[in-house]
Amino acid sequence: MKWIREKIYRMMATTMLLVLLSQSIVYAEETQSSAVNTTAVSLTSPSAILMEASTGTVLFEKNPDEVRSPASITKIMTLLLTFEALEKGRIKLEDEVTTSAYAKSMGGSQVFLDEGEIQTVDTLIKCITVASGNDASVAMAEYVAGSETEFVSMMNEKATQLGMTNTHFLDCCGLSSDSGHHTTARDVAIMSRELITKYPQIYKYTKIWMEDIVHVTRQGSKPFTLSSTNKLLKQYQWTTGLKTGSTNAAKYCFSATAQKDGIDLIAVIMGAPDFKVRFSEAQSLLEYGFALTRLYVDENKEMLGDIPVTGGKADQLAVQPKGTFRYLDVTGADFNQIDKKYHYLELVTAPVEKGAEVGYISYSLGGKELGRMPIIAAESVQKAYFIDYLKKILLKYLI
């Protein structure tokens, strides 16, 4: 009957863990939605959103799901896929990229790459982020995926993965005025958040105000100055990026990022009537966000010791917090009053895989739970069999 009892114990432990996880997920959704404001900032731009990057909390929105043409803020997805390819080792910053005739033919904003011209991936990223080069974007897309068409397929696939439900891309740079090339302020914030949180090295490029590159062609070498399209870099001291865009169809768009006191904000403006409005209204959103918010961060780097394990080759299991806990406050709460408590499953039964959740840390303030951080196994514990129990007995009585 022993195996029946063990099976029941495992089922009970699994059920308890599922309950804990479902409560945590529901609560996270509630805290993110409770901070949204729709009236705090007066905007002339038809669509906008303000998001805190580390938690994804939306602080302000105005028609955030209105489908609009994105212009060159399309390139945020191009950059995201470029950095993903770098992370996976498929390309390297020092790789040399040859400009195709098609890439050279791009109109709009460009850095005037010549057919056959060779530039490194690093330089092309600068051309995209600083000068919004359409030719550089296509050259990069062709290098990563073989063709712009294939790269655009990757863009749409990534948009689906990120939950960008109102987005569809037709090109990698935003030149298309076709209504089939569209997105929303919310979706732009989502892909902007993915880029800056997963690849913060993007700031190395987006903070550049002006920098020279060198065109090397059959006609010789010629310097070319990249000048940032993001004028907020000079107007607002906390600015870190990210991308501007404008076409007749899109009017003036901007995904602005800024960092202050450890808080990263994303302000997306779409359809502004002129370039000055997109910058001033993005700044207004950022100033509102920084005035409103404070971020509580617990890095949870400590090991938590051991907990007992039933039916394993080892009797104890080392555990640790899964990661950093963040809570975005908009009420002026006293963080010194936050209560942190540890909760463990009543029964942990082997086998246990490293990384398996065995409990959670709760954070509360004034009797209200702010959120939870899972506690996970820091090692694996294999299931014990008869021979393992026999070894334990021999070791206990013979040593």
Distance between the termini: 32 Å
Strand content: 25-35%
* Number of strand elements: 16
Radius of gyration: 26 Å
Query: Mean of the pLDDT scores?
Result: 89
Which CATH class of the largest domain?
A: Alpha Beta
Structural class comes to: alpha+beta
Strand order of the largest sheet: 2-1-9-8-7
CATH fold-level topology of the largest domain = Beta-lactamase
Number of domains: 2
* Large-scale geometry: globular
Give the helix tally: 11
Q: List the uncertain runs.
A: 1-33
Helix fraction, binned, reads: 25-40%
The CATH architecture name of the largest domain reads 3-Layer(aba) Sandwich
Descriptive overview:
By secondary structure, this protein is of the alpha+beta class. Helices cover 34% and strands 27% of the residues. Strands 2-1-9-8-7 form a five-stranded antiparallel beta sheet, with helices on both faces. A five-stranded antiparallel beta sheet has the order 11-12-16-15-14. The chain starts with a helix and ends with a helix.
Secondary-structure blueprint of this entry?
Blueprint: H1 2-33, E1 47-52, E2 58-62, H2 75-87, E3 96-98, H3 101-104, E4 118-120, H4 121-129, H5 134-145, H6 148-161, H7 185-198, H8 203-206, E5 210-217, E6 220-227, H9 232-235, E7 239-247, E8 251-260, E9 263-272, H10 275-292, E10 294-298, E11 306-308, E12 316-321, E13 325-329, E14 339-344, E15 357-365, E16 368-377, H11 386-398
Antiparallel strand pairs: 1-2, 1-9, 3-4, 5-6, 7-8, 8-9, 10-13, 11-12, 12-16, 14-15, 15-16
Helix pairs in contact: 2-5, 2-7, 4-5, 5-6
